[in-house]
User: What shape does this take?
Amino acid sequence: MTTRIVQEWLDKYLLAWASNDPDDIRALFTEDATYAGNPFDTTPWTGREAIVAGWIDNKDEPGDYTFEGAPLAYADGIGFIQGRTDYSSGDVYANLWVIGFADDGRAHSFVEWWVKPPSGGN
Assistant: This one.
C-alpha cells in the first residue's frame, strides 16, 4: 500500500466536511470506529452512528473554512495527513490526522491533532 489509500480517504473526508451529509460521513468509518477530537480525548465518539451524531452536532458550515492538506505517510495500516485549516472567523489551525485503516479503506480510528499558531503568527 501507498499513500494512495490515505488520499482517497482524505478526498471522501473533504466531501463529507463540505456536505455534512450523514451518508458521506458514514462512508468514512467502520461500524465500531472511534473518533478523537484531540490526542487527550478521554471520551472519543465510538461507533459510526455516534461519529455521525457528533460530527453533525459540531459541524462546520460550508464556506466557513478552507483546508489544505496532504498525506504524509502510510504504513502498517496507519495513515497520516498534515494540513492547515483557516476559518472565516480568523482562526487558523495546523492539523495532523492519524487514521487507522480497515482492510476496506474505511477508518477504524481517527485522532485529530490541531494547533493554533503562536499569538500573532500565521
In short: Helices lie at 4-19, 22-26, 48-57.
